[in-house]
Automatic annotation (TrEMBL):
Residues 293-463 form the ELMO domain. This is Engulfment and cell motility 3. Keywords: Apoptosis, Phagocytosis, SH3-binding. The keyword Phosphoprotein does not apply. GO terms for molecular function: SH3 domain binding. It comes from Scophthalmus maximus. CDD domains: PH_ELMO1_CED-12.
Amino acid sequence: MPGAYPQLIQLDQKKPLSAVIKEVCDGWNLPGPDNFALQYADGVQTYITESNRLDIKNGCILRLTKAPGRCAEDLFKGIQSSDSGVRCDSLKELASVSTDVTFAQEFISRNGHLLLVKIVEDSKDNVIMTHTLTGFMELMDHGIVSWENLSSVFIKKIASFVNAKPTDASIQQVSLDILESMVLSSYGLFLQVKQEVTMERLIAHLQVTNQQIQTKAMALLMALLQTFAVVCECDETNTLTLLKKRVYLLQNIIHSSGSVQDEMAHYLYVLQSVTLNHLEPRMRTSLDCYSQEQREILHGLRQAAFETESENSLSHERRRSLCAKEFKKLGFSNNSNPGQDLVRTPPGLLALDTMFYFASRYPDAYSRFVLENSSREDKHECPFARSSIQLTLILCEILRIGEPPSETRSDYHPIFFSQDRLLEELFCICIQLLNKTWKEMRATQEDFDKVMQVVREQITRTLSSKPTSLELFKNKVNALNYSEILKLRQTERLHQEETLAPPVLELKERLKPELLELIRQQRLNRLCQGTMFKKISSRRRQDKLWYCRLSPNHKMLHYGDVEEDTDNPPIETLQKKIPVADIKGLLTGKDCAHMKENKGKQNKEVLDLAFSITYDVEEYSLNFIAPSRTDFCLWTDGLSVLLGREMSSESMRSELEILLSMEIKLRLLDLENVPIPDSAPTVPKPPSNYNFCYDFSQTEQ
C-alpha cells in the first residue's frame, strides 16, 4: 500500500483469501476490505486469487491494491470520461493491467472490450489509439471472448492502420499483431483480412528499418500463407507473389547490418518450408504410363540427348528397338518401359521434372553428361536417369520437402531467397557434381550407393555453411571433391583408431570422473546464468517470455515473466522461486503435464524440447519448453545434478568425448610417432635365486 509501513506476515494457506486481506486492511486501519486485493509487487504484477495462491513462495513481496473488480470499474468509467487527459491515462493503465487474466475477466464482464472496439472505430487520436489497441490485444489474448464477434468496420479500421503509409509505428505493430490473431482464429476472419490487406503492402513493411514492424509483418504473412495453404492447397498465387519480392527479404532482413532475430529466422524458415512443400504433390505422384504429356517428356529427354535419323521412316520394331537402346544409354533400368523407373514415390514425378528442367535449361551440359557416359565401358558409365532419381530424393530429404513446418525450427537456407526454383537449380549443379565425383572415384555400377553417399555428404556440408547464392554454392560444393571427403574420413578414422587402443581406453576411464565433475560445474554455472523461455499460447505463437535461473548458492530456482527486450534480468526481479530441496522429480517429453494437456497438438520437435520439474510431493510442476535442443540438454543435465542423478543428455556425452579427446592428445604429445602397444608388457617370471643380491652388512664387519 503506497505510504504504508510494510508488514511481515505469515500467510495461512488454509484461511480464505478474503480473511487474509481483511487482516491486512485491519493492520492499516483501511475500511472496506472487499475493495482490495493482493498483488505481486515485483515483475509481472499478477493478482493473487484462490486459484493461484499456492504459487506464493516464502519471501515473496506482495502489495495491497485495488480489487480487480474495482479497478475494472474505475477504468471502464475513466475511458469514457469527457476529460481527454483522464481518458488517455485510463487507457494507458488499461494497456498495462490487461495482461492479468483476473482483471481481464472483470473488465470483459462489463463489456469493456466492446467499448474499446467503439473507440477504435470512432477515434482519430494516435496517442490514445496505441493504448487502446494494446489493451484490446492483451484482453483478447486471454481467450475469454471469441474473435469472430468483431464487426467488419473494426476489421477495416485495423487494416487501414496497416495499409496507411504515414501511420505511427507502434500502432502499426499492434495492428499487425491483431490481424495475425484474427487470421489464426477463424476462416471467416481470414477471408476478411485477406480482402482488406494486400500482399504488396505487407511486403512494403519488410523494407522498413524497424525490426519489430518487419517481424510482425512477416508473422502476418506466414499466418495468411499457411492458412491459405490449408484451405486452398492448389493455389500458389500468394506464395509466388511473395517469392517475386524475395529480393526485399534478402536485402532488408538477411543481408541487413543487424543479425536476424530468432523469431524472424523462424518465419523465414516457415516461408521456405511452405514454398518448397508446393512440390510435395509432384513428389507423391507416380508417373502415369497412360499420360500422353508424361510420355512426351520422357521421349523429349531421349531426343534431346541423341541425334537420330527421322523416326517416322523407321518400322515399328526398328523404332521400338532404337528407343530402348537410347533409354538404356540414358540410364533407365527398364529401357523398354522407362516410366516404370518413376513409379516409386518419393521422388515420383519430381524426378522427371528435374531431369526435364536440366535438359531444357542447360542443354549443352545435359548432352555432354549423356554422351560422355555413353562412350565409357558399360560398367563405368554413370547412369543419368538412375542417378537423377536418387539425387532428387536426396535433395527432397535435405530440404525437408513434404514435412509440415515446425513450430520451433529456424534453420532456413539463405540461398532459397536468392533463387526462383531452388530445387531444380540445385539439381542442375549437383547432377554435374555427381558425374565429377563418379569419375574421381573411378566408380562402377556396383559403387552406385557409395557415390550417392559421398554426394549427399558434399551437399549437406556445403549447405551447412549457409551459402547466399547459387554461384557460391557451386564453387564450394565443387571444391569439396572426393579427395577432400577422403581426407575428412581418414582423419576421423585415425582419430577413432587412436582413441580405441586399450592403454588409451584405460587412461580415459581414469580421466572421466574429473571431466564429468567439470561438466557438472559448467551445467550448474549455466543454470545460475539463466535462460529465457517461451510460452506457446493457444494461438501457437511463442510471444510470452519468462526467465529462470539458479541462485548462486544452488538452493533456489528463481523464475518469473519478463519483457521481450530484457536481457539477463537480475535475480531480484524474478518474483517466484522454488527451493531445490522441494524438487521431487524431472520429467521430459510426453511425460510432462503440459504435453499431456496438449495431446495431439504438439509435434515431435516440441516434445523433444519439453521438460518439467515436480515439487511439493509431486503435486505441482514447473513446465519448460527449451528454446533449443542445446538448452534442453543443459537444463536437464543441470537439474539432474541438483537432484543427485547422473547426467544423460547427448550433449553431455558429446562434450565428455571432446574433453577426453583433447586431454588424451595433450598427454600423448610426448609419444608422437611412438607406437602404442595394444597391451602392457608381460611381467617376467621371478629368478630361480636371489644370489645377485649383495649383502653390505658382511663387508662392514
